[in-house]
Amino acid sequence: MASITANWFRVQAGLKARWVAVAAGVALLAGAAPAIGAAGSGGSSCTPRTLVLSAMPIELGPLLAQEKVQRTVTVAGHDFFVGTLRGQDVVLSLTGIGPVNATARTKLALHTFRCGHRPGIKAVVFSGVAGGDWIGNVIVPDRWTLDHGKTFIKVDPQMLATARRVAHGHVPLERQAPAGDPACGCVVSPDSVGTVTVTHKPVVEVGGAGDTTDPFSGRALPCAPGGGDVFGCEPCILQSHAEQATQFGAGVMPFVDPSFFTGYFSSTATNGNYVAEDEETAAVATVAHAAHLPFIGFRAVSDGGGDPLHLPGFPVQFFYYRQLSADNAATTTLAFLAASAHR
Q: Are 55 and 280 in contact (CB under 8 A)?
């Protein structure tokens, strides 16, 4: 992840100059978003882009550090980073935590980016962390369920074939867990300080079923302004120091609720039937499928086997290994995008 580390401060400076395209209010979330052309800056033609999504700032951060951002489109207070990444025209964005947020943000993206009457999004990719087998492994399921296995949404076969080629090549996955940047201080790169090394050498695994659960019982979990690399509303490089100093503690308070801990913090340990369990991927896949768009998800294991500290599972393992897993998911996603660009 050396190249990601090298780009961290470049992006921190470059993304401060934002281009705000639309302010449309709450009606956008109800599906009334005006279309925004997907063309690159300065281009007259409309270029369909790959939508790359993550739930949390820590997951999107490594990808955003590598993107050549051309402009930021803000819709209903939600940022979409338009540019290029590994040879692909892309739109990067956060969904927020949970299937309700993931559904709403994916729909918002598809409503926002249009090429006239045609979609301005050509494919959807998710990159994030999950419960799974071995910490640091990157899991690429071939199908996802949102209803506990009653129905499944299949991953696009061509995208899956590309992922298999990537898995059979050399993907430089991390094994030593970085300390990260939990408060989004951005004083040092989140990968600059290492901690322990997991006992299992991380690999990319393709195939099997992924499960998306809803620990929030149909509610949309709010993000917290200045809420750090997990609960924050923006990637760390865009969370201001003033926000961090004054709002981090207050912003996290809504999560100190018994229903949050009994729901979210008991949801991701795999039960043997699924290779990965999370709270967003199948929701995003459902929206993509309804729009007839190809989809794939990359989920790196943040809570599982191979922990030399023998921490007591989720959520303790998640908070300790989340940077390692987010980095590995991003590394694999970047390799996939590069391979797709040269297909």
A: yes
57 is written with which tokens?
A: 């700032």
90 alpha-carbon distance from chain centroid:
14
| CATH, residue 81 | 3.40.50.1580
Q: Containing domain of residue 211, as a range?
A: 2-341
pLDDT in tens, the chain (343 residues): 545 444 444 444 444 433 333 333 333 333 444 577 765 444 446 899 999 999 999 999 999 999 999 999 999 999 999 999 999 999 999 999 999 999 999 999 999 999 998 999 999 999 999 999 999 999 999 999 999 999 999 999 999 999 999 999 999 999 999 988 898 876 667 777 778 999 999 999 999 999 999 988 899 999 988 889 999 999 998 886 544 444 444 444 444 444 444 444 444 444 568 999 999 999 999 999 999 999 999 999 999 999 999 999 888 999 999 999 999 999 999 999 999 987 6
**Cα 341 from Cα 338, distance rounded (Å):** 5
For the chain, the domain total comes to: 1
Q: Helix, strand or coil for residue 271?
A: coil
- Residue among 70, 124, 52, 103 nearest 329 (CA): 52
Pick from 269, 135, 123, 247: nearest CA to 184: 247
Q: What SS3 class is residue 55?
A: coil
Hey, what amino acid is at 13?
A
Strands 113-115, 36-37: pairing kind = parallel
CA end-to-end span of the chain: 24
pTM: 0.85
**Residue 194, token pair as written in the block:** 């290492």
- Tokens in use for 73? 């489109």
